[in-house]
Amino acid sequence: MKEFAVTISPRFYETDALGHINNATIAAWFEVVRLRFIDTLAGDSGMDTRSWILASLQIDFLDETFYGSDVTGKVVDATIGNSSFTLHCEMSQGDRLTVRGKAVLVHMDVASKKPQRVPDVLRDSLAAR
């Protein structure tokens, strides 16, 4: 799979009492990376990103992340099930890998609130990466 990366510039208010980027902020940054990745796969298909719900989130904090230096968030692996999409992400600051995570998203029919098959446009686009 071709690498997908997003640059994030930490803001001072995202730090905790010890000067680290807050753990809840890291979860939010992973969401930004995931949704931008899905947007690139969807292209101009008009797919609604509100149709994805987070079913599972795992975050491993490997090193400290600080204010003052950009962070690179990457999708390093992605697999599509019937109605689910599993994304493996990493974050680094400079040459240090600071965070690794995995998220499982479920594609939902917004009206019925029932899982639905992941659209073929995403399947085809991911296969082409």
What does this structure look like?
The protein is of the alpha+beta class and 129 residues long. It has a single domain (4-128), classed as Thiol Ester Dehydrase, Chain A, CATH 3.10.129.10. It has two helices and six strands, in the order E-H-E-E-E-E-E-H. The protein has helices at residues 23-42, 120-128; strands at residues 4-8, 52-61, 71-80, 84-93, 96-109, 114-115. Strands 1, 2, 3, 4, 5 and 6 form a six-stranded antiparallel beta sheet that branches. The longest helix has 20 residues, at 23-42. The relative contact order is 0.24. The model has no long low-confidence stretch (mean pLDDT 93).
Report on the biggest sheet. Answer: 6 strands, antiparallel
Overall number of structural domains: 1
- The CATH homology group name: Hotdog Thioesterase
Strand content: 35-45%
Q: How would the global form be characterised?
A: elongated
Structural class: alpha+beta
Note the gap between the termini: 5 Å
Would you tell me which CATH topology applies? Thiol Ester Dehydrase, Chain A
CATH class: Alpha Beta
Q: Which regions are unreliable across 5 or more consecutive residues at pLDDT < 50?
A: none
Helix-strand pattern, N to C?
A: EHEEEEEH
Percent of residues in helices: 10-25%
Number of helices: 2
Mean pLDDT: 93
CATH hierarchy: architecture: Roll
Number of separate strands: 6
Compile the SSE list and pairings.
Layout: E1 4-8, H1 23-42, E2 52-61, E3 71-80, E4 84-93, E5 96-109, E6 114-115, H2 120-128
Antiparallel strand pairs: 1-3, 2-5, 3-4, 4-5, 5-6
